[in-house]
Amino acid sequence: MLLAQMGYTFLYFITEASFNHGMNPHVYVTHRHIVSGIVMLPFAYFLERKERPKLTFSLFLELFLLSFLGLEVLYLQNPRGLAKVFGTLFSLAGVMTMTLYKGPIIRNLWPALIHVEGKSSIHENWLKASTLTVTSCITWSAWYIMQAIKLKGYPAQLSLTTWMSFIGAAQSAVFTVCIEHRRAAWTIEFNIDLWSILYVAVVCSGLIIFIQLLCTEEKGPVFVAMLNPVSTILVAVLAYFVLGERLYTGSIVGAFIFILGPYLLL
């Protein structure tokens, strides 16, 4: 899971570079799912031919809608249950501290090693960004829980990853076609856009999803979700040392608070 979070960390930087280059975010999502499905298909077909359950219509609907949720069992009467609760609260407090509290700025030790073009065109909309981010976290959490439930009846991680990629590509394509009518937006040239799509498709939508499914089956959805904020810390550190972005005291304090969370829970 730590390796998976490292993979997600580079995702943010390469995605930002691609968007600054002019890549349409909706087209980007569609392409990443298509490429991921194509890459994972042969592995899923040949390696899980004997253990892959038959795809019924009801199973397909479950994969399409992702509509069933479960609950993590908590036993507040014993130390293990309390550790889960306090671990979650510590992690939440750490991430919120990194996000909301700045504090004194820390001076950069050296000039930026890599300069990202197009950053001046970024405009801030805190209300919209916060709303979308919270919505993303809620749906992401529901997705983890759905994975844990579905793996009980469909214990074929490669095949499940492939199906999610192709179905996600179809859903994204329909949505994108409705709002993006320029044919040029779908063209991918041999530049940062292509490398970004390949990285996200193979590493993030393919390999990392497969790793998460394995860990979810072995340890449950909370274990997988608990380490997600690790990428927040890694992004802040790399942005400071490599891109020359500002690092605030609040980020360091929040990181230390967050570390207590996974330690207690795991």
Structure explained in plain terms:
GO terms for molecular function: transmembrane transporter activity. Belongs to the drug/metabolite transporter (DMT) superfamily. Plant drug/metabolite exporter (P-DME) (TC 2.A.7.4) family. InterPro entries: EamA_dom, EmrE-like, WAT1-related. Residues 131-265 form the EamA domain. It holds the Pfam family EamA. The protein has helices at residues 2-20, 25-47, 57-65, 79-100, 126-153, 157-179, 192-219, 221-226, 230-241, 249-265; strands at residues 105-106, 247-248. Helix 2 packs antiparallel against helix 6 (157-179). The chain is 70% helix and 2% strand. It is mostly helical. The protein starts with a helix and ends with a helix. The chain has a two-stranded antiparallel ribbon. The radius of gyration is 20 Å and the shape is globular. The protein has a domain at 1-67 and 128-220. The chain is built from 10 helices and 2 strands.
Secondary-structure blueprint:
Layout (H helix, E strand, L loop, with lengths): L1 H19 L4 H23 L9 H9 L13 H22 L4 E2 L19 H28 L3 H23 L12 H28 L1 H6 L3 H12 L5 E2 H17 L1
Antiparallel strand pairs: 1-2
Helix pairs in contact: 1-7, 1-9, 2-6, 2-7, 4-10, 6-7
